[in-house]
From TrEMBL:
Alphabetical UniProt keywords: DNA-binding, Transcription, Transcription regulation
Upper lineage: Bacteria, Pseudomonadati, Bacteroidota, Cytophagia, Cytophagales
Gene3D superfamilies hit by this protein: Winged helix-like DNA-binding domain superfamily/Winged helix DNA-binding domain
One Pfam family it belongs to: HxlR
Domain of life: Bacteria
GO MF terms held by the record: DNA binding
Domain HTH hxlR-type: 12-110
Protein name stated in the entry: Helix-turn-helix domain-containing protein
Species, as recorded: Rapidithrix thailandica
Amino acid sequence: MHERKIPIDLECGINVFTLALGGKWKFCIIDCIHRGIQRPNEIHKSIAVATPRVINMQLKELLDHGIIDKKVYQGLPLKVEYKLTELGESLLPIIDAMGQWGDEHRDTILVEEAYVQQS
């Protein structure tokens, strides 16, 4: 692991939030688990645009921060399932609000995105 040249200001709640949840697919992973998609291969299929390597890295980070929990069932083949912890459950209102904002502003954002792509 590398040492940061500029330390993170952990007195700022936004910095703590982005430290734990920064990453393109973490909110999607949390949403998948909340909707009942708990096995790694199901999560990979649900977020097909992300590589399994990236999803696995972000699952590990969510585990490390205590946002999700992992249960390993013995047997062959090995079965792994993820679930939200209480800390992870506390993020659901934020994720719901993000989805609502996206729904409300979809047309504006997509119009701007289409303009940028045409330029």
